[in-house]
Amino acid sequence: MNNFQYSRASDVADAIRLLAADPGAKLIAGGTNLIDLMKENVERPSRLIDISRLPLRDIEETADGGLRIGALVPNSDLAYHPLIEQRYPLLASAILAGASAQLRNMASVGGNLMQRTRCAYFYDTTTPCNKRSPGTGCSARDGLNRNHAILGTSTSCIATNPSDMSVALAALGALVHIAGRTGERTVALTDFHRLPDDKPHLDTNLGSGEIITAIELPPQGFARNYSYLKIRDRLSYAFALVSVAAAIELEGNAISEARLALGGVAHKPWRSPEAEAALRGQAATPDHFGRAADLLLQGATARSHNGFKIELARRAVVRALIQATNATPQSQAHKKIA
Amino acid sequence: MADIADQTPERIPINLVVNGAGRTLEVAPWTTLLDALRDRLELTGTKKGCDHGQCGACTVLVDGRRVNSCLTLAVMKDGAEITTVEGLAKDGTLHPLQQAFIDHDAFQCGYCTPGQICSAAGLLAEGRARDADEIRELMSGNLCRCGAYPNIVAAIEQAMSRS
């Protein structure tokens, strides 16, 4: 770990001021990803601005019936919050599918959105990586790319976003509240993370002097028909090869509303308006689920080792939609896939 | 990392309550809680395994919650209450989890054991595990390369049934 200066922000405005004063500074809250990256010399901040004591830990109902979640709410507290368990169980399930109990106790909601890819070449400072060192090339394209993206890739980068929480937030249509020198703004979660294009060093659209203050959930929680199905190499405490957040509303056996998001397959949670539109008004049958999965995976391309993800994702989408239809969401503790 | 820290004059004073006792020390900003406990406070029960939050050997309780001390900066925990494996026994009597690990032979080499026991103490306090599957899931952040998992789960079940 490099030597760095340490500052403790007294409020959000102070954090923004400290960020502006030192271009090499980074915010730290839970630290679970940033400290790890610093130990690997991938991140070398000149200063850490400790925001962990700022009063951004509330979970409040909004005027329209949604929820506003402070950026510093620990992942575990969010997953186990009664309002999340009751109204947004898809989000609770996705959070509990990620990391370990210790890491969930430490990691903040805002930090979860900011966590960086676990691409092994991004972590290995002896190899080229456009995300870590722009312009050096992508080692994964023709390297060990079994864990890498099949959708939205570029010639510069095929890394995936590692978050489970973000996949559920994308499906639920969450908003991200951001504060900066010029005031506050709100962006949709699906617009918060970026595709790599020719700038893979930028994971998100957060400005350099900005701070996430909250996440907002819209009223519709899909609490009855949902599932978060995560497929990985071991049954717990591993990143997704493919994960699916599925949420539907049923009128009888007909689908009136549908949300699908994939994790582990792209540089951001992957949604497709066409796939969701194809489900609306249709009977909840495996045939229709398969058609939606094909639309969601339209344009998927494989490198040498990750071609299995395309078929795996298709099957996982169908299975998650069956689980959602039957109101038998995937348990994150009891591992048998119903 | 402690070696690097010793080369710099920069020190930030912090106060911790460690296993019930107030401790004041000066740390470099990059000193992890794990290194502060082991190298500065000489509490070597907490183990450094992977040092990257992947093995759980460094698990301690901070304000009653289990965390990976290797991914926590000591300076950020100024004012916190820390419980390490050394602080679990009371008045010469082992913590029920410590006794249960002995009763069930829940270790072989023992290197992961302090982290396993502190993590299990956090799990009991959280009250979310109700059966063996849930114990396994909620203990997945603690690896045991000797493979003592069945006995670890049995030990936690014993402590859970008696708490």
Provide a short characterization of the protein structure.
With 338 residues, chain A is an alpha+beta fold. Chain A has helices spanning 12-21, 34-39, 75-79, 82-87, 89-96, 101-106, 109-114, 120-123, 165-172, 189-192, 273-279, 286-296, 308-325, and strands at 5-8, 25-28, 47-50, 59-61, 67-70, 175-180, 183-188, 211-217, 226-231, 242-251, 254-263. The A-B interface holds A 1-6, 28, 31-32, 35-36, 38-39, 48, 50, 52, 76, 80, 99-103, 105-106, 236-237, 332-335 and B 1, 4, 8, 10, 12, 28-30, 32, 51-53, 56, 59, 65-68, 71-73, 75-76, 119, 122-123, 126, 128, 133-134, 136-142.
Question: Can you offer a commentary on this structure?
Answer:
The complex is a heterodimer of chains A (338) and B (163). Chain A has 338 residues and is an alpha+beta fold. Among the domains of chain A are: 5-52, Uridine Diphospho-n-acetylenolpyruvylglucosamine Reductase, domain 2; 226-325, CO dehydrogenase flavoprotein, C-terminal domain (Enolase-like, domain 1, 2-Layer Sandwich). Chain A has 13 helices and 11 strands. In chain A, helix 5 (89-96) runs antiparallel to helix 9, helix 11 (273-279) runs antiparallel to helix 12 (286-296) and helix 12 packs across helix 13 (308-325). Chain B has 163 residues and is an alpha+beta fold. Chain B folds into 2 domains: 2-87, Roll (Ubiquitin-like (UB roll)); 96-162, [2Fe-2S]-binding domain (DNA polymerase, domain 1), CATH 1.10.150.120. Chain B contains 6 helices and 5 strands, in the order H-E-E-H-E-E-E-H-H-H-H. Chain B has helices spanning 2-6, 33-40, 96-103, 113-126, 132-138, 149-162; strands at 12-18, 21-27, 59-62, 65-68, 81-83. In chain B, helix 3 (96-103) crosses helix 6. Chain B is globular. The N and C termini of chain B lie far apart (39 Å). The relative contact order of chain B is 0.15. Classes of the chains: A alpha+beta (338), B alpha+beta (163). Chain A binds chain B through residues 1-6, 28, 31-32, 35-36, 38-39, 48, 50, 52, 76, 80, 99-103, 105-106, 236-237, 332-335, and chain B through 1, 4, 8, 10, 12, 28-30, 32, 51-53, 56, 59, 65-68, 71-73, 75-76, 119, 122-123, 126, 128, 133-134, 136-142.
